[in-house]
Amino acid sequence: DAGVTQSPTHLIKTRGQQVTLRCSPKSGHDTVSWYQQALGQGPQFIFQYYEEEERQRGNFPDRFSGHQFPNYSSELNVNALLLGDSALYLCASSFGTSDTQYFGPGTRLTVL
Amino acid sequence: DQQVKQNSPSLSVQEGRISILNCDYTNSMFDYFLWYKKYPAEGPTFLISISSIKDKNEDGRFTVFLNKSAKHLSLHIVPSQPGDSAVYFCAASEGSGTGANNLFFGTGTRLTVIP
Asked: In this complex, do B43 and A103 lie within 8 Å of one another by their Cβ atoms?
């Protein structure tokens, strides 16, 4: 049973560029949430997708956008990258009304 | 504004003894709580959870206690093993049972179990 997978593992971009991160949820899960984890901090909620729509959003600017596909996989897009966007980006999946989220290994984004 | 707080950045425990990790929260609307373990270069791994209608949940060596009046929860690991050495995150959410929940995390406690 495949868990949550994310790609790429690492990514280096420069300021002003755009980036797309990808996530495949755990088998049978239909909800995908994205989190940003800065060094030394706990993960912070970016947004959650369910039925291909953004269901909830955290306190992140519009530069952060996402998408969920019919197969429940998801993308996180960040435009106009800033140095402060350097972080570990985590994807988590869950099913239906379950409150437990299962995390992928993350994508380490470095903005130079 | 940090709604979930883990005030101990680190904890060292001898192998075989009990590890107690603590977590405090400020939002009285939180009704579901989780503990995750994180190794370097990996994502958080779900350990155990508890709903606000309970005050204790046990799973093998792991027990979570919830004190709603004090807005405090703790994770007990007995007996502690060297493989338990990791960073432990406490998380909380509201809207239990809806699936539409965003998790609020603490800043983590690094547990080191000394052989």
From this structure: yes
